[in-house]
Amino acid sequence: MITARAAATFEPVGRAVATARAFVRDTLQGWGYSDIVDDAVVLTSELVTNAVIHAGTAADVLCLRAEDGVRVEVADRYPEREVPLQGVAQPAPAPDRENGRGLLLCAALASRWGVEYSPTRKHVWFQLDLPDRPVGTRHAGPALPTELLPTADERIRVAVVQIDPTGAIAAWNDDAEHLFGYSADQAVGKQLGDFAAWPHTPGTGTGLAEALRLSRWEGSYGIRGTDGRVIPVYASHLRVRDTHGEPSTVCLLVRDYERAVLQTPPRAAGGDSAGESRTADPFEVFIGSPAPDDLDGLLQRTVERARDMLDGDAAFLLLATDDETELEVRATTGLPSARQRFARVPVEAGTSRYASARMPAVHEDLLAVPGAVPLLNGTGMRSVVTVPLKVEGRLTGSLGVAAESAGRYANEEALRLQFAADRIALAVESARLGELERLRRGSLSFLVEASDLLAGTLDRDQTLALMAQMTVPTLATWCAVYTIADQSSDPYLSYVLHEDEERIDGLKELLSGVAPPDPVPTPGARVWSVPAEAAQRAALEASRRQLGEASSPLSSGIGTTLATAAAVGGETVVLPLVARNRVIGMLTLGKPSDDHFRQEILELAEDLSRRAALALDNARLYSERTAISQSLQRSLLPPGLPQIAGVEVDVIYRAAGEGNEVGGDFYDLFPIGDGAYGFAIGDVCGTGPEAAAVTGLARHALRLLAREGLGGPAVLERLNAAILDEGARSRFLTLLYGELRPREDGSAVLKVVCAGHPLPLRLRQDGTVEPAAEPQPLLGVMDDLELYEETVTLDPGDVLLCVTDGVTERREGTRMLGDDGLAEVLRTCTGLTAGAVAARVLRAVERFAAEPASDDMAILTLRVPEPHRL
Where do the PAS domain residues begin and end (predicted)? Predict the structure, then answer.
């Protein structure tokens, strides 16, 4: 009688075999059939391999549960292949030959098996019977003395958290509130990832989202409490569905040191049945099948199996750096993993052979040799055995098992552990190299993207923000950037960023209260302990003040202090920002409490700091030069327009080019004396700094010569000589210069000289538009000029419009605004003030073409108001 079924289809890709193994293992464990899981996984692996690898078709796997056992069917879609017939004598294939081996394994391991055909498929099935066992017993351990039982608190609390299909928390029990501090109202509806500190390297291994989708999962991670600290927990996840078919995941969580409450006991090795000859791979015997396909999973499985093999209380695995001088903690069990992960210890800790990770070592009592194993300081472990992991004679890591009681281990345990280490060393190194390759590819992509972003701005503040945003949270939990203005200045805290925005203000206050790191130009990251020490002192003082008051819940002040202390309590490193052989700042990266940086991250941060330093220095130089340029440009503009009684004046000026305030066009209006005013509008050939230099010469020369009492022609002739004296730096210049003298009758008399410039236009009160001058030779070309001035009288209501060629030569394709187009615009300005006339002309110029103007532009309007407006 079939009581349950599970089915899945696997496409013909390389990962299909491993996925099928996981599917069968999870299904059978979910049904409670752990005793036959290994055999079922081996047979499924062989049959699916035949289908997807050798036959090249998809494989359909069906698991059927009955009262007396399990039947597994594997179907492929290529039934034409020959299959060895039962009862026909055939030579057995070689053991290392894959074709046909799956059917031989079925015959050896299964209670019953067979092959069935249909027009489109071939089914290979096998059945595994359940072993006889006492009713109601699934697993039983030996009776143990009380002192050897697992340690737990007097009141064991099991947090029950239910996760809906979106990853949000749907249920949160009272024990969860007690363990982590959040009430059900605070937790329900939020993502579990908001609380979980998942021990996972980006790009490798299984993440929290993947673990929640597995049918069953067990392991260790952390939950952030309300005080910001990470609480290590051991979790058991079970994926279920309700009566309506909706899936969810039930998570049971206990404190990590109480893992025995939830952890599935290891299956005892059973003896082989008579007549069977089964050779097991030593690596698979130790690690289990299927082996994890990622480095973190492989290392975690290794330490757990090592601890169980020697019946230890804790185990740890460290990987060697490329130069074999340091070991980096990568996996632990039974230890505060959050505190130890990625911490580094030296390979050679002393002169004794027992202080070198290159040799096996047994310490019967760590109290007799304090500090012999720095990783175990303060953990309560008394005895430890460590063995090296070596590949081709090169040290690649170290594996250790520890116990809380003294004298637990001797040479015999060291030999057993070394045997296991020798079997897994090559697999660990291969997985490590694969992870490094993935990290390096990711690092290259990261650095390319960072370089593009940094090269895309020359703004100093934006560069600082980009530096911090690229490091947080990719490389670090928080970041601070110090800048140094010059060699005589102290480092200044310029930017602070934390992955939790609520921590930024507290972090900034903390760093502002401590001395900045020394600006050492030595490349590479160096540890800076000042922030963590300052945070600990602040937290201690806040706690003492709180204890001196009436016992009450933590105030917001002490809560912020404790949260800041937790945020900066881990490892903090400083990388110099060196550009053009000068230290221009420091990049500071930090981790939360008891956390460390891995070596690959520090190397990536060092590469980033070099690029960021150059970008920051470029932004600094650009800012300085822009400030100088703008200051010089502003000095070329008139300080302000004078107020002229009886005449309205307005000017609009636009310089072409990004960052330019002054170009080749210029204007001026200034008092000459005796009630007269000089005005000018001109255009130097070209744009940019060279044209601006001639602009400054022309404007200042005009003022000086006009105030000497010279007339318009004489002023321009002397200016022409000054321009020619510049030699190769000279530029020819078009200039409209005039003298304005208001009269008592409300009119104004103008004397105008137009040297090669667009003619000024006069708008009469009746709407008539006419040129107000005649063209004459431009300046800066000929030595001898014969210029003359013309007199124009502006009656009340008249407007004089003076523009540069940036207005008249405005283009849209083959069309050009021109003098006629400008005159048409001016005819519509009757009755408008001088400012309104200038604004209307500017709008007409801007709307004439869709593209922005590429030439400098100046508009000067003079208007004599009507008598009733005086």
Answer: 145-192
